[in-house]
Amino acid sequence: MAKHILCIISIFLLPFMVFTEVKGAKKSYGIYDSNTARKLFVFGDSYVDTGNFVHSESYKPPNGMTFPGTPAGRFCDGRIITDDIASFLKIESPTPYALRNSSNMQYGINFAHGGTGIFNTSINGPNMTVQIDSFEKLIQQNIYTKIDLQSSIALVNAGGNDYTNALKTGRILDLPAFMESLVEQMSVNLNRIHNLGINKVAVGLLQPIGCLPALNVISLRTNCIGLLNLVSKDHNKKLLQAIQKLNNQAGKSVFITLDLYNSFLSAIETMQKKRAANSTLMNPLQPCCDVKNLGDSCGTSENLYFVMSVSAKISSMVKQIPSVTTLLLLFFFILREVEGAERLGEVKLFVFGDSYVDTGNLVNSISYKPPSGITFPGTPAGRFSDGRVLTDYIASFLKIKSPTPYVFRNSSELQYGINFAHGGTGIFNTLNEGPNMTVQIDWFERVIQQKIYTKTDLESSVALVSAAGNDYATFLQRKQGSMRDIHVFTASLIQQMSINLRRIHGLGINKIAVGLLEPIGCMPLITAASSYDKCLQPLNFISQNYSQMLLQIVQELNKELGKPVFVTLDLYNSFLSVLATMQKRRSEDPTLMNPLKPCCEGVSTEYYCGSVDEKGEKKYGLCEKPEFSFFWEGVHLSHNGWYGVYTMLYSSLRNLIQTKL
């Protein structure tokens, strides 16, 4: 039965592979031409892995009983989609990377690994980035020529394990942002594979996860879980848009999609119709190989058995897994929240502060020079990071695009708000020339006077306010490091911030997110003195004191107004929490990057991230994997770092929209 459904799915997918007509290949289906130049390179998870997960159930009975007759590394009784596509290309299935040697790589390599995903999962295996790293190393070893690569095909399929892992870790709590980050990373991966020389890339869309037996058990396997299938549909919609964009950029159809979603549903529907006509046929939503106890898997020696039609057993399994019910309810509430957020379509975001929230106002700065923006949007775009910053994530949470930087107000759309934040500035004037927060609010007031936004626009909008780091940097530099009168300075900062917050509210904004001060003693610029070993606590005490005083002022303002206008975003504890988590993981795996160390830094103290010499040569170095870093450079966070902080702020951000849903 498993073989039958795979065949049906392959039939549905073959029309998508028409582009792969093999010139010179033998015409007999299944007859392989070892001299063909065409090769297949595979990246992804267990749906396409043919043997890399060596110490797994895929190498235990009853896997492989249909083909090749014995366990051989496939999570199936027989062939999987990789085998069918290789057969369609008239080649043998490519060798698993784990089993490679000098004589068995003529048909390509399969880098896919069961249990892995686009990002890291709970399985200790190579995520897709690492799989592509392995591919790049083989190319560097000159195992394949440029012609080999140009005439070859890549198969890419992953995502399911990412969503499963997100449920376990809590990242699913912000489904829209998580989904966007997944698709964005997939887009980076696809572009990288193409840049390594592959001109044809087949990309699997996400299967309908609500139909998988591990989850549809909650319905006694009578039907798919529609809410979970909505996740797959939304993911696929975003992935299709990303692929279309990549093809437009390439100027040709490099990437084609394999619609696993509709292929699965069509195959299931076909089999259900046949079963309706013949009740002796097996329910296609029921697995062929099942287990007696929850937590076991097909291939667990003492618990393995083959399911017939035992409704009582399925019912008892449902009772064993309240966690499944919990996860489904969690998805339900997440999706309800997303649907509610969609109604925020008219909300606008107005941003005030420094480089932590600036998305493009400091035009003549390193934020517009490489390597800024290498993760997102792929080129320097005015953010002090390799990718997104806090503003982008909050905009995504509000279901809008990031607001236009003020400097581009005359050339861009303003329907999502305006970002007045300016890198290097503060609550007061700093050592950097630029508009302090008072001036930024002046600009906002002028925009309102120009009637660009209505009173209703403002009342339904949100303001993001974050600054003070540069104020303390300026204070300490002017005082030559002395902390004398620091308490007086903090009091003056808090007083001015209170004035600023009142003023923003007075201009019509009824929801204002206020960032507490990050732990400045953890900045790489500071921790470099200890070889990035630990944060400098005296400076963190400054952040703590400021944050406590600001929190008190916000509470007083809300009490005075009689409603929760102001919501604090605890950057201080969010930073420390994410750093602690990353440090704990590094203690378990020393190969991981030290989170206190910046990803990008100058080759010596006279240079910085983005420096070039008079010949235009780079004078900075990058970490091997920016996606695993916390800090981008001396004081700014990486795309990954900001995402981690953002997930910690999720509950606070909900307070911004709870009155609107």
UniProtKB/TrEMBL annotation:
Residues 1-24 form the signal peptide. Keywords: Hydrolase, Lipid degradation, Lipid metabolism, Signal. InterPro entries: GDSL (IPR001087), SGNH_hydro_sf (IPR036514). One of its GO terms (molecular function) is hydrolase activity, acting on ester bonds. It comes from the Eukaryota. One of its GO terms (biological process) is lipid catabolic process. The keyword Nuclease does not apply. Pfam families: Lipase_GDSL. The keyword Isomerase does not apply. Belongs to the 'GDSL' lipolytic enzyme family. This is Zeta-carotene desaturase. The lineage of its organism: Eukaryota, Viridiplantae, Streptophyta, Embryophyta, Tracheophyta.
